[in-house]
Amino acid sequence: MSNSYSMWPVVLMVYNLPPYKCMKDPYFIMSLLIPGPKSLGNEIDVYLQPLIDDLKELWEEVLWTINDFPAFAVLSGWMTKGKLACPVCNKETSFFSLKNGKKICYMCHRRFLPRDHSWRKNKQAFDGNQDHRQKPKELSGDDLLEQLNKVNVVTFGKGPNSLKRKCKDYELNWTKKSIFFELPYWRTLKLRHNLDVMHIEKNICESVIGTLLDIDGKTKDTIKARMDLKETGIKKELHLISDGDKFMMPRACYQLSSTDKKEFYEWLKSIKFLDGYASNISRCVNVRDRKLSGMKSHDCHVLLQRLLPVAIRKHLCKDVCIALTELSLFFKKLCSRALLVDDLEQMEKDIVIILCKLERIFPPAFFDVMVNLTIHLPREAILGGPVPFRWMYPIERFLFTLKKTVRNTARPEGSIAEAYIDKECLIFCSMYLEGIETRFNRDERNDDGGQGNRREGLYVFTQDMKRLHEQKAPEATDQLYFLACGPKSLVIRYSGCIVNGIRFRTIDCDKHRRTQNSGVVVKGEHDSKEIDFYDVLVDVMVLNYLGENKVHLFKCDWFNVGNQRMGIHSDGNITSVAPRNLYEVEEMSSVDEDTDVDDDSYEVEDAGDIDTTVQYDDLDLDTLHREDVQLVYVDLPNISPNNATFDQINDDFIADDESSDEDDTLIDYCDDEEDDELQSSENDEEDE
Asked: Residue 592 — pLDDT band, cuts 50, 70, 90?
């Protein structure tokens, strides 16, 4: 199937199911399959009309739509390109035109700060101007309808009235009135079309990694970006330096040196994750050529939230590390399955500070519309709830399943429709089948056979348990009696086990695998304070009792977290544990009853709490360039004076133009079993 072929499955998800079911594909309803091969643009409303009629007649309410950002423009009618690309800020979108880069940047996040904040008056550290504007007004449905009443009526189809035309100033970025406004309650909703966190996170990760590693085509710190710095008169330390006929480009404080890049790639190549937690990211790393390619959306999700703060803290200055770490923690909190309104309200304030810090560090070209959209994500989470119920990951997996069913590439819609009907019939029948394995009763990946289920009623028992059991006392349960009888003399050793749905392996076994399951964290109490103890699994022993009861014993090497200087260190957001500093626990083959066992071997001092809040202190950036790296000679690009100006390019967009832009980040997220099948077509794009 060609990469340019585009079809639109329209999927309904029922939210009044249990949370663990509503986002699973067996419970999806594919109501429409809009055929290709080209993107529909505004004409998608023609295909959605039967669905809207059914929704008005059969369903009580549609909460919102889940889509990527290009599809946001098609469904909502607000064009997500140009100067007013942000659909939330609407006509109050703050943009800045870059003359040399021919791009639009969306900075000026200081207007979201409190009115008396000192950064509003700081000219030198930002764009050279003070900013005393108020944040954009939150528009209601009536406000949007008032704007839409000024938009010319769109004529669908290929006729003389459907020719391309220029958008008027009073039409803003509206191209049409969305068909969803035919639903009587649509204008009263506060959240209509979700911003897709998955693709926002992926685009930001690519921008950050590309800029730090200076990846060609991905970095935002290009020669034209440096020329724009000189044009705007900001960040003078990063301006190009003239040296006769050549120009020298200073290395910025956020760029890694050649040695740092090598260490970064080697570290990323050696990373291992828990079984089932993430894909094998090391396959995307080429240490010899220093390339990072083939990163899927979930790989970027893990890289931004988990790996980036650890990877950069050794190579970049403190202020850059703090800003990027706070950005990572923001997305980590945002993507949690349980969110508190108080936490989200605090995150609304935190993301403003984070983006202002990034404005002081990165060039204006870094701040595309995806970075600007992050400031609205906490508000959407307050209105719509947890992000995992509103992002594109389940949809992408569903699209990948549909794509695999295509057998006749000349008629892909027919193949998908037939396969979907057959699948629905099998799913319906499997709900009523017993005695055979179906997708509803299949064991989980890390199923322990029921041995790891926690049982209530395990109390401290005495030596009189056998006597009480013979007397059939009610407190002498079978489980206590089996424990009182002691384990069998045969002890079995394993290199791994599954307990309570979690897979464990010894450290020797992990050395030969691509995943890592030897780390163990145990919460303990010391001096009336709860701290974490870290260790690695060395050996697994299983004690067998009567009644087929089992007890798993873990032999571990415990890290000495009590040594604040050499054992554990916390720098505010990251906790580091020295793997070589272990507790010295003596091996005891046997212990007499009269021997006093010294329990002080695990006694530690307070390890301290980890502070994950955003630091509101001012940055201490002494310099924006790296003095330890030599300057690079560059050639200036040829910029023709006869080219159209930036304002002309962006004012000439077409209101009724078919939105044919594909989202180049729309990559399917697959597990390890699906990954091999997708290697040959990882650049395929699907439209939602």
From this structure: very low
